[in-house]
Amino acid sequence: MAHHFARSLLVLAALSLSGCAAFSPDSGMTTVSELTSQSISKDVAFVRTSEGEDAVDGRMRQLLSRTLTADTAVQIALLNNKGLQAAYNELALAETDLVEQSLPPNPVFSISRISGNGASEIERQVVGDILALATLPFRSDIARDRFRQAQLRAALATLRLAADVRRAYWRAVAGNEMVVLLTDAKATAESTAQLAVKLGETGSLNKLDQAREQVFYAETTADLATARQTAASARERLARLMGLWDGGLDFRLPNALPPLPRRPLALPSIETDAVAHRIDLQIARLELTALAKSLNLTEATRFVTLLDLAGISRRTQDPEGAPFRERGFDVQFQIPIFDGGEVRVRQAAETYNLAFNRLTERAVNVRSEARDAYRSYRSIYDIASHYQREIIPLRKIITEEMQLRFSSMQVDIFALLTEARQRLASLRGAIDAKQRFFLAQSDLQTVVNGGGSPAAGSDSPTTIAAAAPADGGH
């Protein structure tokens, strides 16, 4: 009988080994690359060799050799950001968990020797966890779902970095444009302030008007200093996201934001697209599937949580007789007298319900976020377009007419300076509106594909995974 049990144990182990997972050549990065290219059409690389580092460095030097666009900034970050590389390391670690969960439990060998008064006894045992071996296909299936989740989390980290880089890029370029505008405004204000001082010396300008011109120059100087600091901080944040060291801080950025598109995007099915494509929802769905399988496994093994089979071979040496050998087996199992598995089943069921409710809540929030992001995008486009089509051209006409009237001495210099202040305010408003449009455009792409910051109360894979072990609680 012991021989038959040992043979059955070996056969079951052989069948289990036939379905074991093996390490993939790319640690699951093919799926990450496909998801990323579908959403943002950019290359990703998991750098683990010196040859890979050299290839990335060469690509970066090529991209940094010209003025950066939003797309090139994103590409540099996806290749060079070490935080993203750490996320890919986590994916590689998740693959080790998959391989580990697909392997059958190692048998335990033991040998003991007892002697005394000339007699000796040697016992050998091989112990196998039959329950773990029987549930191996189920646990391996759950581990595959967990690995698929890890791939989606790596893709989500990639999209989040791309979204952050785009936002930082638009803020940095808008900062440059604001600096250029205020630099010109400061030069004009300085000239008028000096003119006011000279007119005051001749008695042609009273102290009140002199103070008005001086304060305009002082305020413009302060605004320019603030704009320079804002632009420098935005540039530093962009450099951090791109993973650039000191030598890469001389990258070139445009001095002005690009023009608005001729017409805004029309996305009538944005809610459906967001629910279908959001990677965080895909992660939550896989989590729910894994928890359902874990719940089924827990229910199936609620009464039996320990089942070990040991083959025993014992050789006894007696000085008064011939040595003899004994063979047999030992079976260990737990009797569910006090704990019939109700606690584990209840925990698994409540963990599943928790994940289901969070998935439903997240789906509702995603639809709302999609609607809100599109409304904001259209509204901000209309505002920025209104500045470009109406306000700025009218301000240009007013400035030209005021200059003509000043040349013909129909208005004095103070009216011209008042118009200069108002035009400066309109130009600053136009830059701000255009910056908010490009940020809204980035947010719109993010809300459809995923990549934004996790919402408060959203499904957290780490929390849920901790609540429900991948082996169903065994």
UniProtKB/TrEMBL annotation:
The keyword Signal applies. InterPro entries: MdtP/NodT-like (IPR010131). Residues 450-474 are annotated as: Disordered. Residues 1-21 form the signal peptide. The keyword Signal applies. Gene3D superfamilies: Outer membrane efflux proteins (OEP). Keywords: Signal. One of its GO terms (molecular function) is efflux transmembrane transporter activity. It comes from the Bacteria. This is TolC family protein. The lineage of its organism: Bacteria, Pseudomonadati, Pseudomonadota, Alphaproteobacteria, Hyphomicrobiales.
